[in-house]
Amino acid sequence: MASLSPGEEDMESASEGEGGWSEVRKKTSRKKIDMSSDSLSESDSRNELKRVKKKNENEDWKVIVEFGEQTAAKLHPVALTKAIHKEIGSIKQARFLSKGRMLIELMNAKQQEKLLKMKTLNEVRIKCHVPGANRKILGVISGVPIEIGIEELKKEIKGGKVSVVKRLPTRYQGKIVDSLSVLLQFEETIQQKIMIGCMSFPVREFIPKLLRCFKCQRFGHVADKCKATKPRCPTCAGEHEYGSCAAGAKVKCCNCGGEHSAAYQGCEVQKKAKEVQRFKVQNKVSYATNKKEVKTENNSGSSR
User: Fold this and answer.
1) Any idea which GO molecular function terms this record carries (predicted)?
2) Distance from C-alpha of 27 to C-alpha of 182, rounded to nearest angstrom
3) Average pLDDT of span 51-66
4) CATH architecture assignment, domain 57-129
5) Are 203 and 1 in contact (CB under 8 A)?
6) Could you give the CA distance from residue 203 to residue 25 in angstroms, rounded to a whole number?
7) Minimum mean pLDDT among 3-7, 89-93, 148-152, 189-193: which range?
8) Who's near 89: CB < 8 A, 6+ residues apart?
């Protein structure tokens, strides 16, 4: 069910308004779907969604090692490689992730078990966990009266171990107010329903807000992480900052080329990006870390 990586930022940015959180009901059958690359652009719109490959045994032997951002920046790749080989033997590969983390792909379960128990590597303190183990398990219930406070909800909720309860905000008459929807973080697995008193509330998967970069206008990342060398205007698609359009410039989407801005909710590229976002949650994958583990539906279809 729903399992998200960012966690706290998802909890903080959740909202009921347009462009905020959304919900999907549990489906009895999984529809084949393409999975997106790191960022969605107009040049590969037909191949934006990719489907996840069937799991193979190599996927099971992965560990994320946390060094800390400042420490990781000082690590010597050669010395670190020698230390890894000395402690657990030869590995498939390793690569640095963001926030001072490293993803190590191992040869077998014995190596994984040993690495997970390690507290230091090359005399540096580390924390190890399996990818996805720290993801937040989030769900949404609706129709919860405003009069019921958060503390009361925490006491009255039954049917699952809930660690965090947050009422989602919404926009009403130009103001941000509490909505009738509540975001729940489960400690174990998400439940199909929970009880508040004698009332039953169905639980739906929480889909986090779709990210759109305000620099390049593509989806799947934010401006601070953008690799584009030049900005793109969300209004006219020109290579300049927002608000600097030439006189008489026509409105043009820089993602699909349509006669609308990059923020338009009906944009086909944005719709596909949202589909990817839902698929990400349902299948516990992300744009970046699973890039090598996906292939396009078109390619798989042509090989049949």
Assistant:
1) nucleic acid binding; zinc ion binding
2) 22
3) 62
4) 2-Layer Sandwich (3.30)
5) no
6) 9
7) 3-7
8) 107, 111
The answer to whether the predicted template modeling score (pTM) of the entire model surpasses 0.70 is no
E strands, the chain, in order: 22-24, 50-52, 62-66, 93-96, 101-105, 120-121, 124-125, 127-129, 137-141, 157-158, 162-172, 175-186, 193-196, 199-202, 204-207, 294-296
Q: Which residues contact 237 (CB under 8 A, 6 or more apart)?
A: 252, 253, 254, 257, 262
Rounded to whole angstroms, how far apart are CA atoms 93 and 114? Answer: 17
Annotated domain spans of the chain = 8-52+136-207, 57-129, 223-302
Q: What's the whole-number mean pLDDT along residues 69-83? A: 85
Q: Are 144 and 201 in contact (CB under 8 A)?
A: yes
Q: How far is CA 3 from CA 6, 9, 206, 283, in A?
A: 10, 14, 9, 8
